[in-house]
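Justification of computing resources. Each target in the renewal requires a structure prediction run like the one illustrated here; the chain below, 686 residues long, is used simply to show the kind of job we budget for.
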Amino acid sequence: MIRAPFRLAIYTEAVARGGAEMNLANVIAALPAAIDLHLIGPDREVLDWLAGERPGVAIHVIPTVDHRSDLAGMRAHRRLFRSIGADIVQFHLAMMPTAQWALLVAQTIPGQRTLVVENSTMGAWSSTSKLLKKLTSRRATGHVSVGRQSSRIIEQVGGLRPGSVGTIYHGVPEVRHDPAPDAEEFRIVNIARHDPVKGVDVLLDAMALLPDDVVLAQFGGGPQTPELEAQRDRLGLGERVTMASIPWSERAADRICDHDLFVLSSRTEGLPVSIMEAMLAGVAVIAADVGSVTEVVSDGVTGLVVPPEDPAAIAAAIAELARRPGASTVDGGHGAPRCHGALHRRGHGAGLLRVVRADPRHMTGVVVLGAGFVGSAVARRLVGRAEVAVLDLPTHPGLFARDDRARSIVLDAVESVGAVAVVNACGLLRGTTDELTDANVAWPTWLASTLQGAGARLVHIGSAAEYGDPGTGDRVAETHPLAPRGDYAETKAAGSNAVIAARAAGLDATVARVFNLVGPALSPVSPLHQFLTDVTALPPEGGVIELWWPDTVRDFLLLDDLGEALVRLALADRSVDVVNVCSGVGVSFGAIALAMAAAQGKPVEIRSLDRAAQAQGQVLGPDAVAAHDVSVCLLEVDAEEAVVEGVVLDAVLVAPDVQARVVRGVGFTRAREGEAAQGGSHRPRP
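Resulting structure tokens:
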């Protein structure tokens, strides 16, 4: 949640309503109410229509700057930007070269932050335009497009640094999805402005190859209308193709469900709103393979993908679906969940908050899933640093269903606090195979799918058990092969792999593989919990404690330090795929038990229940504490005094080649190529 007044200015040079403007309207409707929103552009009608999405929007009409000689226009823009005093100016580009002079002017204002949102890979390029694109991209606070493939195309076409353009998926609100009335014809619908890039002429050529019982309703308008109408008549399609515009007061998307099939025939696109609207309407989709279309349309699953500018391929695909009974309900039904989750319209608003997260005047939120000992530790560490929403599954039973209602619960929480991150502290330590699979695999897989496109980072808690037993005393880096043993370790590894796969598909996500926890509030299944129970039960004069394998060495991590580590991973400017969260110090079970007893003033001896050790008469006494580098009781009530020695560094994950970052005993290990990482110790530090 934004705590200080936050002013956002959105600049658009649109003079008509198209897909980019529909996307912007959805974004405006989904932005948090705390934002003071200003709209800037040359067309009053467009700005009034956009402002109708929410109350209290300030409108500023100003002519565009189309050439470097328009110095008066540049000065007028600079005065306007300065007078608004926005915390960030978002430039919403319908095409790549759009608004470049206005963007450059804004970037000449000291301290003015700018966000560039690309909606298309199309542009008419000149040497000056390419130079401006490179310059303004470098200076922008954030530069994103609406799809991964679109981002790569923009980088290539614009000569930008690979990876410099990020991705924030947009989404759409619900659309009408009533079943289409019965009809003898096979009804196709297309929604596109009349512009050569939209390929309406290609669709008309395809219609000429189809039988008379295939009809088309085309909704749009623009400079190419007379040419397209003439083409329709020349092809003899006057009785089968209707062309109409949609009033500003209506949504063209609400007419999609009256048809059997939606066809996108564009020559270029970013991520078309119209195909997502068709999916939400339950209508099958045929789409040209342009921009980021295939990130939404899975060929043969949610629709059919055809080559661009290929009327014969479009006609063949239409004929195939016309012969397939129930094509619209089958294909569209598969596509709707993808639009609800990966392309949720809240995503852009949350993504915008991530861009401005570094501004100390504006606090951001974190959603914590789970209110157990780990979730509570994270929530404690967030106090005073971010707005927190805690979702505990027992108090939100609707989450167990993992359906649309559960998805809404999570996304509503993300929106309510303007969350830049979701920490998943839900999981199961013990249970049947099915129970562990459901909690440790199915849940994070569903959660990652839900958060795709929502703009919030997922921090998932994995386990050191995923590495298995290394078999040596060497420290374990994140690059160590996984070798889980047993249901718990195997399900945790599968859940972490699902999150890593979602990261590869575009989700901002980190897996924090956590080593052995100690603290005043631990799960009863922890062996340390039993140690503490046994020590507490001893009389004041002490006695003997029997343990299995007391000389077993593990890396122990304070619970509050884990909370701090997860908070820093959630709020870091950038994320990594996997981080081992550990102390970097090896301590034996026996030494832990002795430290507990020493803290309570009870002299004890530790005897092993292992028969081999018994035969050797192995006994651990108080002198073992110093030998194992345990100077305080790790389960003392005052956790601030219970800190494994470590170097305190404020900067975490700021350099990818750093071997180890230690915060109050928490090791963030990132190995240099060819070198061993320093965290995840399974033996005492030399």
